[in-house]
Amino acid sequence: MTRITIIGAGIIGATIAYELSLIKGLNITLIDEKEPASGSTGAALGVLMGIISHKTKGRGWKLRQLSLERYSTLIPELEGLTNRKIPVNDQGIVMLRFQDDPLERWEKLQQFRHNQGYPLEIWDKNKLLKYCPQVTNERIIGAIYSPQDRQIHPKLLTENLILAASQNGVNCQFGVKVENITPTGLDDSNNAQSYQIKTSYQTLETDWLVICAGLGSTPLIDDLQPMVKIKPVLGQALRIKLDHPLGDVNFQPVITGEDVHIAPLNEQEYWIGATVEFPDQMGEVSAQEELLENIKKQAFSFCPSLEKGEVVNTWSGKRPRPDGEAAPIIKEVPNYPHILLATGHYRNGILLAPATALMIRDKILENNTD
User: Fold this and answer.
1) Cβ of 306: how many Cβ atoms within 10 Å?
2) Which of 14, 64, 179, 227 is deepest in the core (most CB within 10 A)?
3) Is 193 helix (H, G, I), strand (E, B) or coil?
4) End-to-end CA gap in the chain
5) In a 3-state reduction of DSSP, which class is residue 295?
6) 199-214 as b/e, with b when 16 or more CB fall inside 10 Å?
7) CA count, 13 A, side-chain hemisphere, 206
8) Cα–Cα dist 86/152, whole Å
9) CA–CA dist 343, 22 (Å, integer)
C-alpha cells in the first residue's frame, strides 16, 4: 500500500487526510505536535468570502470556486458519516457599502457572478435596513448580499473531518513531535522515493509526505531545503452575548464591513473580529489590546445594539503568511520528490481547505498512476 504521512492537523491537514481516506490502497498517518485545530484554525472565524470576493480569474478564483463546489457536498457527507452536526450559517454574507465605495465595481462583479451562475444582490440603504435593521450608521449607504457564501465553525469542522478520516482508517497521532525527516530509497537519478520520519515516539517510513503545519512548516522543511519562509500575522477576536438576537431572528447573515466581521453563533451570541497585526523587525508579534478595542468599537458603530452585550471571551491566533510568494503555498519541494507543501494560507485557510486537499490528492494520484 502507498504510505502517506501528513504533518499538521489544522483545517488543511484534516481535510487532506479525509479526502485521501476516500481512496482505496492508501496507508495514511496524520501527525500533530498538539491537539487538532489548536493553531490558526482554532482562532479563525470561518467566514467564507468566495463569491463576494473580487477574485474573478486565475489561481485565486479557481481555488475559491473549487472549494465552494466541494463544500456543498462535504458538509452533509461528513454529518452523515459522523452523525454529528457541523454548525453552518448558510444565510449568506452582507458586505456593508460606504460612501467611498464605488458602485460600478460591484455592478461589474454582480454581472460577472451572474454569468457564472452565482447571485449577488446590490442593496440600497432602505433595503439594507429592511433586512438588517440592526445596522444603523450614517456612513453606510447600502450593502452587497451574497446568499451562497457562508460561515462555518472551524474547530468543529476540523474535528468532524478527523473523526471521519479516522473512521475511514487514517492513523491519527496527536501530541507527537516530528524531530527530523530523512530521504531514503533513492532511485537511479539519486532522487528520494521514500522518507523516514523520526518522531518523539517512533520512526515512520513513508512514500509521500505532506507538510501542512502552518507556521511550523518552515522548521520542518529547512533541513531539506530552505525554500519557504512563513511569518506570523496575529489576529484577535471576541465573543459577545446578548439577551436577544440582533435584527430579524429569522435572518442572521454574517455582516462585514471595513474588514470587521460580525458572525452570529446562535440567537444570542456573536463572534467579532479580527485584527491584523504584523510582526516587528525581529519577527515577533504580540496581541495589542488597543487593536482589539478598535475592532469592537467599529462593530458597535455598525450595529449599536451589540454594545448592550457582554464580552464573554477573547482570543488570538497567529496566521501563517508566506514571505516572498503568494498565499497559499501548494507545491512539491524542489529536488525532493513526494514531499508536498500545503501551507501559508494566511487568512483563507478555512475557505481554501477543500480546494487544497483536492489538489494534493490529484498530485498523489497522478504520480501513482504514472
Assistant:
1) 18
2) 14
3) strand
4) 16
5) helix
6) beeeebebbbbbbbbb
7) 28
8) 8
9) 22
Residue type present at position 111: Q
The closest alpha carbon to 258, from 48, 91, 95, belongs to: 95
pLDDT at res. 183: 87
Q: Beta partners for 277?
A: 234
Task: List C-alpha distances in Å: 276 to 54, 91, 95.
Answer: 20, 26, 19
Q: Which cell numbers hold the place of 28?
A: 495514511
Identify whether the C-beta of residue 49 lies closer than 8 Å to the C-beta of residue 66: no
Which residues share a beta bridge with 255? 94, 262
- Which residues face 151 on adjacent strands? 47, 89
Q: What whole-number distance in Å separates Cα of residue 242 and Cα of residue 248? A: 14
Report residue 35 as a C-alpha cell. Answer: 491537539
Question: Are 175 and 35 in contact, with CB atoms under 8 Å apart?
Answer: yes
Distance of CA 134 to the CA centre of its chain: 28
pLDDT tens for 163-182 read 999 999 999 999 999 999 98
Question: What is residue 277's DSSP assignment?
Answer: B
- For residue 172, give the 3-state DSSP assignment: strand
Q: Nearest CA to 260 among 169, 152, 135?
A: 135
CA dihedral (205, 211, 214, 219) positive or negative: positive
Q: What pairs with residue 347 in β-bridges? A: none
As a whole number of Å, the CA-based R_g of the chain is 22
pLDDT value of position 201: 87
> Could you read off the pLDDT of 310-343 as tens digits, one per residue?
999 999 999 999 988 899 999 998 888 899 999 9
| Cβ pair 130, 87 in contact under 8 A | no
Of the listed ranges 23-27, 166-170, 181-185, the least confidently predicted one is 181-185
Question: Which residues on neighbouring strands pair with residue 31, listed in sequence order?
Answer: 7, 173
Neighbour-count burial of 179, counting CB atoms closer than 10 A to its CB (0-12 exposed, 13-18 middle, 19+ buried) = exposed
